[in-house]
Amino acid sequence: MTDRPPLAALFPGAVPADAGLAAPVVQDRYLCGGTLRPWGGPHEDVISPVWEPAPLQPRVIGRAPALGEAQALEVLDAAASAWDRGRGEWPTMPVAARLRCLEEFVRRLRSAREEVVRLLMWEIGKNRADSEKEFDRTVDYLRDTVEAVKDLDRASSRFALEQGIAGQIRRAPLGVTLCMGPFNYPLNETFTTLIPALVMGNPVIFKPPRFGVLLFAPLLAAFAESFPPGVVGSIHGDGRVIVGPLIGSGRVDVLAFIGTSRVASLIRAQHPKPHRLRCVLGLEAKNPAIVLEDADLDLAVAECVQGALSFNGQRCTAIKLVFVHERVADAFVARLAAAVDALVPGMPWDPGAQVTPLPEPGKAAAMAAFVEDAVARGARVANARGGESAGSLYFPAVVDGVTPAMRLYREEQFGPLVPVVRFASLEEPVQAITESDYGQQVALFGRDPAALSALIDPLVNQVCRVNLNSQCQRGPDSFPFTGRKDSAEGTLSVSDALRVFSIRTLVAAKQTPANTAILEDVLRHRRSSFLSTDFLF
User: How would you label 507-526 residue by residue, b for 16+ Cβ within 10 Å and e otherwise?
Assistant: First the structure.
């Protein structure tokens, strides 16, 4: 490791041609009422985690609109008009027609792949391979959504006959939806709420995250050209300025938010009738791993490194706390430290880069503060390079000997730190998970089916996914993704998301000759988008 260059030397003086950006990237439009409105007002500088070298300092790569309350309400007016209290073109449009709009958007989206990938690298520091994966996974998600909508509609295309009553049960939209995605997966996770909400008939307003705002610029025209006016709108700027008025108006029916529980609570509280605001929330987690004394240590180390440090640990699904049985703790920590020190730091476009710059200002200092607190209370940094930093680069630290007295035990670090807790009795990690405010996932590592079963049964009532000998993760997208306690509200998967952004509604009639004749006429002449027995292929 002594032949590795210092972290500061990794920041580029020159950028490869296949990674460069037009500088600066200026976004000067927002989407409202089906048109791209020019914005001549104030802008916010977009700061890249890829700092300028010599002297090392933050780099401005572009500007994004800083809209005000008036513009936010203008976008809301357009969405409310598209909804028209459920009578608008979009919410009453046949499912097949909405799917054609989505398929047109997918076609246009694909042409923006390279531009979006480069902006992911520059805006949030995600390496090229993961940036490409995020884009491709998003396209796959959209295609899978089309098929899931067809399946849902096919299942609803028949009438139920019960106790002399005929009824057709379908899913109907909920209303104007505000979608706010996170910076760590700004494209994918924004779209995992925006697209299902949209395709189920809800007009959508979306706010890009603070880090990852520019990558939506090339997509605004695709939205405008693929969907009817007002069905999709965008707002940009300080959430305290533009989100509060939207929620406070009482005209937002659904909030889809991925972020922290603190912010989610603040937003929801601003609605004048919060019990009427449907919330779909993906929030923080402190996902633990439990390494039993019979675990395959090589496997556990590999999965924990990937699970804890993929994209620098900036994932709600990341492993944030590793409980290790004391009988194997020394061997596990030694292997874990060596594996972490073998990670390759670099810029997002560098081949093989695994540790990349952090997008949040002051994040390296925040990580250092976690480590200082732990060390002051008796923990130690187990890997040689742990805690090295330069500008926005922070080399991951394995912190051994973490206890409940330390911040790293309780708080979600959301960054490149791997806290290790040694335990003697399995009751210790089980009790910690039970008492935790979070309940998304857990990873279990061991060989004995009986021992693993004894953990599975209590833990499935504390978290929503138990991973056996594998890292915590979201995919595949067909699996439910949710959490207990403060970790989530609502379930997201390709099929579950369609249900969470809609409600079961039915038309029912007693089976009289007159009613039967009415229903037959409606179906035969296709007089209703809701009442239909058409089969989507």
Answer: eeeeeeeeeeeebeeebeee
Distance, CA of 352 to CA of 280 (rounded, Å): 36
CA dihedral of 417, 418, 424, 429, whole degrees rounded to 10: 80
Q: Do 137 and 278 share a structural domain? A: yes
Give helix 297-309 / helix 329-341 axis angle, nearest 10°: 50
Residue that the structure tokens 């008025």 belong to: 245
CATH of the domain at 301: 3.40.309.10
Distance CA 86, CA 79 (A): 11
Q: Hey, what are 156's tokens? A: 């609803």
Name residue 18's amino acid. Answer: D
Around Cβ 123, how many Cβ atoms within 10 Å? Answer: 30
Are both 158 and 222 inside the same structural domain?
A: yes
Flag whether 503 is in a domain. no
For residue 414, the enclosing domain spans: 287-478
* CB contact set of 269 (below 8 Å; sequence gap of 6+): none
Query: How many structural domains does the chain have?
Result: 2
Let me know whether 255 and 241 are in one domain.
yes
Residue 23 lies in a domain: no
pLDDT digits (tens, 9 = 90+) for 506-527: 999 999 999 999 999 999 999 9
Q: Order across the sheet with 165-173: list the strands.
A: 160-162, 165-173, 502-510
User: Does 529 fall in a domain?
Assistant: no
- What confidence tens digit (pLDDT) does each residue in 251-310 have? 999 999 999 999 999 999 999 999 999 999 999 999 999 999 999 999 999 999 999 999
Q: Which two tokens stand for residue 114?
A: 């390279």
Q: What is the CA radius of gyration of the chain?
A: 25
- Residue 508 domain-assigned (yes or no): no
Q: Which of 426, 380, 437 is nearest to 403 (CA)?
A: 380
- Residues 249, 160: one domain? yes
- Three-state SS string across 245-287, please? HHHHCCCCCEEEEECCHHHHHHHHHCCCCHHHCEEEEECCCCE
Residues 253 and 330 in one domain: no
CB-CB contact of 464 with 492 (8 Å): no
Listed residues 229, 247, 282: the one ending a domain: 282
**Taking the CB of residue 409, how many other CB atoms lie within 10 A of it?**
18
Cα–Cα distance between 206 and 235 in angstroms, integer? 6
